[in-house]
Amino acid sequence: MFNNTEHVINVAQISKSIVNDLNLVTHRFVIYPALIFYLWFIGFIGNLFTYLRAELRNNTFCIYSLCGSIIDIINLTRNLFLRYLSAKYAIRIPWYSLRATCKLSIFLLAFLPHLSIHFLSMAIID
Fold first, then answer.
1. CA separation for the pair 126, 123 (Å, rounded)
2. In 3-state terms, what secondary structure has residue 18?
3. Where are the transmembrane segments (predicted)?
4. Residue among 37, 32, 42 nearest 76 (CA)
5. Are the C-beta atoms of 66 and 47 separated by less than 8 Å?
């Protein structure tokens, strides 16, 4: 017979620990989104030079990859960089004050990463 009374796991304590760890990571690494943005932007410029060469312009894989890269840089500019400005320098963008712009902002927050993934999957399928 097994006695399971010795192994009691407190789920509330584990959840609280995970939330505390995530909050610590969020507050400690606020400086890194700018670094991520700059590195991603350098990669985007490299993609532009690579995929817009004359030999690769007619290749649909390159077109899909370039469109995905453009959507990624828009997503980073729209979501990550503005969130970084809000967290680091308390610069608030007034998009959440009006109902229509708030809905548009939340839509773009979810839509742009999905659009980039769809371009990537179309490039892989092609």
1. 5
2. helix
3. 29-49, 61-84, 104-125
4. 37
5. yes
CA dist 56 and 125 (Å) reads 17
What pLDDT digit, counting tens, does each position of 49-96 carry? 999 998 988 899 999 999 999 999 998 888 777 777 777 787 777 777
Q: How far apart are CA 107 and CA 118, in angstroms?
A: 16
d(CA 17, CA 83) in angstroms, rounded, equals 25
**DSSP summary character for residue 77:** I
The residue count of the chain comes to: 126
101 in Cβ contact with 95 (< 8 Å): yes
Report the alpha-carbon distance of residue 33 to residue 24 in Å, rounded: 15
Q: What is the pTM of this model?
A: 0.69
The amino acid that residue 74 corresponds to is: I
